[in-house]
From TrEMBL:
The keyword Transmembrane applies. This is VanZ family protein. Residues 3-34 form the VanZ-like domain. Keywords: Membrane, Transmembrane, Transmembrane helix. Pfam families: VanZ. The lineage of its organism: Bacteria, Bacillati, Bacillota, Clostridia, Lachnospirales. The chain crosses the membrane at residues 20-38, 50-71. It comes from Anaerobutyricum hallii.
Length: 95
């Protein structure tokens, strides 16, 4: 899983922490979903397979939704700071 990040050092692109987080999250979602599908073929664990697949997909969607607010919040704050700096540079009042 981390081979891609290590290989990037040889191509001129350095690995970043967010890449590691995204790769780890993708691995976990794929693994849990695959385990759920395997449980679908077992008569005794059929219900648990459906529950595992649904809970993994729901948790993944909630995580993506929460991360989008976190990332957009940082971007909006940076945009506001740039706006304030520009207004101060031109001697104008900001609201």
């Amino acid at each position: 899983m981390y081979f891609v990040e290590i290989f990037q050092a040889f191509t001129g692109r350095l690995p970043e922490v967010d890449d590691l987080i995204a790769n780890t999250a993708g691995f976990l979602v794929g693994y849990l979903t695959a385990q759920g599908f395997l449980e679908l073929f077992d008569k005794k664990a059929y219900k648990y397979g459906i529950i595992r697949i649904l809970s993994t997909v729901i948790l993944f969607c909630i995580s993506i939704f929460a991360l989008s607010f976190w990332v957009n919040g940082d971007a909006l704050q940076a945009e506001e700071e740039a706006y304030v700096k520009m207004m101060e540079q031109y001697g104008m009042e900001h609201r």
